[in-house]
């Protein structure tokens, strides 16, 4: 194999007839070799496109589930007090997944093609992730004491639930 220093361009040589028709091809370019590689590259390119389409569909499907740990940490940091900041966080925590649940088909419509195949499993994972976010918001409302879950919350004559046991930490335990 010749080294790169051995390459020279002979400007005085006559060009073959097929090179004049092909435009501005570089020296040493052969269309017969290029066509064979082009067919193999097309198959590889189609496989890569199918893989990327499936990967993109799974990225969209897993996005709600991936955001759950961050949302749980934000809910924890907001505290249990009933104030405007935690209430707005809970409202957005319910609103965004509900809006996403109503637009599942529109979300995956741009991803549907013959490369991705059926997106039913992706849609199910997307819905479960959004339901998990709504469940997290409901749990936050429960920890804030706003979720009516005892009979005394609904009935005026029912006595409120009393704690059976109280736990206190004394300075000797700390």
UniProtKB/TrEMBL annotation:
Query: Which positions, given as ranges, span the membrane?
Result: 73-95, 120-139
Whether Membrane counts among this entry's keywords is yes
Cellular compartment(s): Endoplasmic reticulum membrane
| Signal peptide positions on this chain | none
Assigned keywords, A-Z: Endoplasmic reticulum, Membrane, Transmembrane, Transmembrane helix
The UniProt entry's GO CC annotations, sorted and at most eight, read: endoplasmic reticulum membrane
What InterPro entries does this protein map onto?
A: TMEM85/Emc4 (IPR009445)
Using the UniProt annotation, give all residue ranges assigned to the region (Disordered). 1-23, 28-47
Which family would the database say this protein is a member of? Answer: Belongs to the EMC4 family.
Subunit composition and interactions: Component of the ER membrane protein complex (EMC).
> What is this protein's record name?
ER membrane protein complex subunit 4
Origin species:
Pristionchus mayeri
């Amino acid at each position: 194999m010749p080294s790169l220093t051995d390459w020279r361009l002979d400007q005085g040589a006559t060009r073959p007839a097929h090179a004049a028709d092909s435009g501005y091809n570089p020296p040493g370019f052969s269309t017969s070799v290029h066509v064979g590689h082009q067919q193999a590259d097309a198959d590889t390119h189609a496989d890569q496109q199918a893989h990327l389409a499936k990967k993109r569909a799974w990225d969209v499907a897993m996005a709600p589930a991936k955001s759950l740990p961050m949302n749980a940490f934000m809910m924890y940091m907001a505290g249990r007090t009933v104030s405007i900041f935690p209430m707005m966080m809970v409202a957005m925590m319910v609103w965004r997944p509900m809006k996403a649940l109503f637009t599942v088909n529109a979300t995956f419509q741009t991803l549907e093609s013959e490369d991705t195949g059926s997106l039913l499993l992706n849609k199910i994972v997307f819905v479960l992730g959004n339901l998990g976010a709504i469940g997290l918001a409901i749990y936050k409302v429960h920890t804030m004491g706003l979720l009516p879950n005892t009979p005394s919350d609904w009935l005026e004559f029912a006595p409120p639930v009393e704690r059976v046991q109280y736990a206190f930490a004394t300075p000797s335990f700390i």
